Amino acid sequence: MNKKKLIVLTGSGMSAESGLSTFRGSGGLWEGADVMDVASLDGWNRDPEKVLEFYNLRRRQLRNARPNEGHKALVDLEKKYDVTVITQNVDNLHEKAGSANVIHLHGELTKARPVDAAKPVVDIGYAEINIGDCDENGRQLRPDIVWFGELVPMMDVAAQYVASCEILLVIGTSLVVYPAAGLLDLVPVSTPVYVVDPNRPEYHFSDRATFITEKSSVGTPKLVQKLLKDSAVSLFL
């Protein structure tokens, strides 16, 4: 029996409950740093050492972070559905929880790549990157993070998944930032959409979406149980 294609779009609201800072804070700050100072090429060119230390700190925090009940619940969906998680988060909490198929739109904290080159991507785990750390060709390494103004290399892949999904879950993200926000335009009209977010963000398909207005660690397990039950019922129809 073919499993239904279920796509999950996740954002910072999911990681926040595991103790990781959300990217967009008050006044464009992230852990007290101006976002454009640590997440743009201009910021890198002005002070690469500051940028590296900022992500070194993020990596140290991530080492001890644990998936919450929302992350864990999504893994259970794989029993009955063909699940792909498309996340805007740069942490590895979905992988830690056990999700098999994860697409990172904005890169990954645990990876690095050369400055001014998309490849090779190096898996560094939780190690630091410092000035003078280079690839085999002598190029300075930088975090494999998609900064403001840079292309999102996984966008086309993500778009293909969303365009063919049979069920869509949106968890912990208002999806107001492009190009990721553009994925919502690709959702088939017939696809059921479920949104888990305590703030009930407004989408252009809000009139046909089912909202679970709770934080992800609470709302996601409830939604997963419903979907697993629906899957079991459909076997007898």
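The record above closes out task 2.4. Task 2.5 opens with a second protein, given below.
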Amino acid sequence: MGVGAGGGRVSAKTPRLTATERLRRMLAIVPWVAAQPDGATIDEICARFDLDRAQLLESLDTAFMVGLHPYTPDALIDVLIEEDRVQIRLPDFFTRPLRLTAEETLALLVAGRSLANLEGDDVDGPLVRGLRKLSATVGTDRAVDVELGQAAGALVPVIQGAVADRRRVALDYYSYGRDELTHRRIDPWRLHAEQGAWYLEAWCHSTGDVRVFRLDRVADLEVLEEHFEPPDEPVGRSIFTPAADDPRVRLDLAAEARWVAEQYPVEELEELDGGAIRVTLAVTARPWLERLLLRLGPAATVVDAPDTLVGVRRDAARRILQRYDG
């Protein structure tokens, strides 16, 4: 195993790749170089993967540290650079047939079908053919069917174009937590699927901060002529990111309501008798808590809540009854 002397140093004039960019390139570079019987020259690799010499050497400088515990030489990727030629030898575990657990197989199928459902996708392309083969390993060609919503799916190629072209977007967005429709101008930089829905990460000019938008809650969208420059290292945001000063509520949940801890981010969880749990949740908007408590009914008991959230379920139920009485 070896790396050329000084191979991982990048000059001050060379733009550094972000961690995400380095990972994407290495996932492509390593198997390609390893598949070449005599390796490949640095110039060949740079031309193929759109890198300059310093960027490539910086990326290769970390590749030889990848492997499996206990990280002995036979369990690490072997990178050798001699006379401007790069050779990569992969440990034996890379050449073994992939063995997935049932959970891993289903997760891969869900992710693949999410992409395959995009409007305009080739119905008999390599992705779909691969998913058919993978489905066969779990017993049926229809093992998993993913539907992310027609309205959201139709927006995906439009958003992808805006992200690629760095175009600003104007949209009307329904905020589920606050139960209101707002108009936003955003700089979009990442689109992804999670928990059965499409999400868009962007800079929101209305709030002056990074926000995550769920596509099936977009009422109207327009790609503007304005361009923007995304940050070098976009700040990733989870679907739900509470602020430090958001109120917290503590709930006792019966066994049949444990799904709350799986669907929503909880800050504390305590096991109780009979499969029940006690959880602490951050509440960014009162309407969200109202809907949750009405949905849970007697399966949830409010143990502790700030004054602003006392009587939430009672007040919401009273408003609903007034609508029926009216």
